[in-house]
Design brief:
The chain has 416 residues and is mostly beta strands. The chain has a 5-stranded antiparallel β-sheet. Strand 18 (227-232) and strand 19 form a beta hairpin.
């Protein structure tokens, strides 16, 4: 006769976390549908120590069993339990974010494949390199654990061990005429890998479907025990958005139509380089685009493969998300927090905003260069009612302060 001590598990919901499971009245079939991992702890008069059972060992046989966990133990009869020595032990790790300049990094613009000391025109200095002497910093470690944002947009990075190179950071600075940068560290969670998206990686399931509606991305490498994040046009697609999902082996599906990419285009077209998209601008209004062309397969393929679109593979099987909504200060582009902000700040349409933080009277103040929400005609009327659009704003309410949220990613699966 077994006595149940506890049941612990993690649900099948995305970004779920470990926790105690109510086993008193729930049927085994329900538990198997609702949880991907279940560990049962029981005691018996025959053994001095508790026994631990990995219920996944019985999943196939008891998937349709309507009885409770206690009924399951009774149904086993004299069969010996399939036990494990212990419940896997993990600790929790979370991400952190810091401003590059406040953290003491030196930033230099340089032309690709040309030494930084060579005098070349500013327009050729399309990349940037980071280094830090105090404290002495291994830039290879920064590359292996950090994502880098430039003026609100995530960029690809590389390293030679001495410097962290940020692709097209100089171009973004030149176009936007701003210079803000941040680093998002996954050090407590695991290493990350930046994977540029190439044409050979993307495909459709049917010739008559559109990349805008359903794109498949094949990474061509093992993703076992890892979590993939997507950056699209410099914007991070958060794991719980439900638009970028793992569909098998090394393949992911993406529903671009569920993202406000037209709004994001107009929010960012004066900050990052979109010339690679090959859009036919109007002869009377250079900022006007044709939406049918913008959503077309040729443009979407270029959008998916621009330098600010890539995969970030995180070395952990699960990520959870915490969001902290900030109080809007009466001062534009300023927010307040009761705790020290250590996470990236996301503003209108999912853009990340580098910030400077200061503490005043036990309240933290966050200041950004861009904290506005542009209320465009495109957003008011909807893309389905429009053919050609530009960045024109609603005359009744052209711009307001945007809401702002600190986003923390974490994992409960850091081996102890």
């Amino acid at each position: 006769m077994y006595t149940i001590v506890s049941l612990q598990g993690i649900s099948t919901a995305p970004r779920a976390r470990w926790g105690a499971v109510d086993y008193s009245t729930t049927g085994m079939y329900e538990l198997y549908m609702q949880y991907r991992h279940l560990y049962l702890t029981v005691t018996t008069n025959f053994f001095p120590d508790p026994l631990i059972v990995d219920l996944n060992e019985y999943r196939t046989k008891y998937m349709g069993f309507t009885g409770t966990v206690q009924d399951f133990l009774t149904d086993l009869g004299s069969e010996t339990l399939k036990t494990v020595t212990s419940i896997p032990t993990y600790k929790t790790g979370t991400t952190s974010y810091a401003d590059v300049f406040q953290s003491g990094y030196k930033v230099e613009l340089l032309a690709p494949n040309i030494h930084a000391t060579v005098d070349v025109p500013k327009v050729m200095r399309t990349d940037a390199r980071l280094s830090r002497d105090y404290p002495s910093t291994d830039m290879r470690q920064v590359h292996e654990y950090c994502m880098c944002s430039v003026n609100g947009y995530w960029h690809l990075t590389d390293t030679d061990g001495e410097y962290l190179y940020v692709k097209d950071a100089g171009k973004t600075n030149f176009i936007s005429q701003r210079n803000t940068m941040g680093l998002w560290s996954f050090r407590q969670i695991g290493k990350i890998k930046h994977i540029p998206i190439t044409l050979s990686m993307i495909f459709k399931q049917a010739n008559d479907s559109r990349f805008y509606e359903k794109t498949y991305i094949k990474l061509n490498e093992s993703v076992e025990g890892k979590t993939a994040l997507l950056v699209l046009g410099g914007y991070l697609v958060l794991p719980d958005a439900g638009v970028f999902t793992h569909v098998g082996n090394d393949t992911y599906s993406l529903d671009i139509s569920r993202l406000p990419i037209a709004e994001r285009y107009f929010d960012s077209f004066k900050d990052i380089d979109y010339t690679s998209l090959g859009l036919d601008n109007s002869t009377t209004n250079k900022d006007k685009i044709n939406l049918a062309q913008f959503y077309s397969d040729p443009v979407m393929k270029k959008y998916l493969t621009m330098s600010q679109s890539f995969i970030v593979l995180v070395d952990t099987p699960e990520l959870f998300i915490n969001r902290y909504h900030l109080h809007q200060s009466p001062i534009p582009c300023n927010w307040q927090s009761s705790f020290e902000p250590k996470h990236p700040l996301f503003v209108a349409n999912g853009k990340v905003a580098e910030y400077v933080k200061t503490k005043e009277d036990n309240i933290w103040s966050l200041r950004t260069a861009d904290g506005w929400r542009q209320h465009r005609v495109l957003s008011e009327l909807g893309a389905s009612q429009l053919t050609n659009v530009d960045h024109g704003r609603s005359p009744m309410r052209p711009v307001t302060n945007t809401s702002a949220t600190l986003v923390e990613l974490g994992s409960d699966f850091i081996p102890v």
